[in-house]
């Protein structure tokens, strides 16, 4: 597995088998190229909360680190998103089909599981695939399996325009995004191509989501939008709701971008 390199401290690699020691990084933008995943140097100006992570008995910058506080250096536990039930093949393919992706499509995935990305990579010859996630560990796993996939650590509302436009956007786990729906769709209106489809999904529906929110309150921070809310938000941002399914064991909403892009 590719290693995660942190130039400011001596941790050389971290393995996914120890979730309690998963590192947490601020949600500023980090871009990964090729087969290595690197994090920019940590400075007090950009990440003042990390200054307490380590201390030294000497003032020399090259002196060894004597204390590493892992209590503040912990990633959220996203492992429940990799469950077999949540990634059932039939439902996964149903969600991918809703995006109408094909050969040469430019696709953005936000908070996607590794299995979902596997499905996208294997379905057709995509022209470009960008995966956006808060977790460096999840991105490392995806990059290990698919080196050609672009991985970007941060929030979807801060994705740079340089990779636009996108033909399809999959908000695979929208309830993990700590932003108002109108803001998210407004950002997507800026980076979507005309006719692009935004797919909002939950493979197991609201009932399972409610239990996931109880079990993982640090990850699941919102609910799935209802039809009225989606129609209002879509209309405000030049989208139209073309499909809406809210069944006991499955949720799917598709928005189509109708504005011409110059």
TrEMBL record:
**Signal peptide range:** none
Q: Where is this region: Disordered?
A: 1-41
An example of a Gene Ontology cellular component annotation for this protein is:
chloroplast
Q: Where is the composition biased (Polar residues)?
A: 1-20, 32-41
Q: What is the name listed in the Swiss-Prot or TrEMBL entry for this protein?
A: Uncharacterized protein
Organism per entry = Stephania japonica
């Amino acid at each position: 597995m590719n290693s995660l390199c942190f130039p400011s401290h001596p941790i050389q690699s971290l393995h996914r088998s120890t979730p309690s020691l998963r590192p947490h990084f601020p949600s500023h933008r980090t871009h990964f190229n090729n087969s290595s995943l690197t994090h920019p140097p940590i400075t007090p100006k950009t990440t003042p909360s990390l200054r307490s992570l380590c201390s030294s008995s000497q003032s020399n910058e090259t002196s060894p680190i004597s204390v590493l506080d892992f209590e503040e250096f912990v990633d959220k536990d996203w492992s429940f998103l990799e469950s077999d039930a949540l990634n059932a093949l039939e439902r996964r393919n149903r969600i991918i089909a809703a995006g109408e992706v094909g050969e040469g499509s430019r696709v953005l995935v936000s908070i996607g599981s590794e299995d979902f990305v596997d499905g996208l990579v294997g379905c057709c010859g995509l022209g470009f695939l960008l995966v956006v996630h808060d977790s460096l560990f999840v991105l490392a796993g995806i990059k290990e399996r698919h080196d050609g996939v672009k991985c970007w650590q941060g929030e979807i509302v801060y994705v740079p325009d340089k990779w636009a436009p996108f033909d399809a956007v999959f908000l695979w786990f929208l309830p993990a995004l700590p932003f108002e729906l109108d803001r998210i769709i407004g950002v997507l209106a800026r980076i979507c191509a005309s006719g692009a489809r935004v797919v909002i999904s939950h493979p197991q529906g609201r009932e399972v989501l409610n239990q996931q929110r109880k079990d993982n309150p640090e990850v699941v921070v919102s609910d799935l939008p209802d039809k009225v809310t989606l129609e209002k938000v879509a209309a405000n941002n030049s989208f139209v709701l073309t499909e809406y399914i809210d069944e006991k064991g499955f949720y799917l909403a598709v928005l189509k971008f109708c504005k011409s892009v110059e």
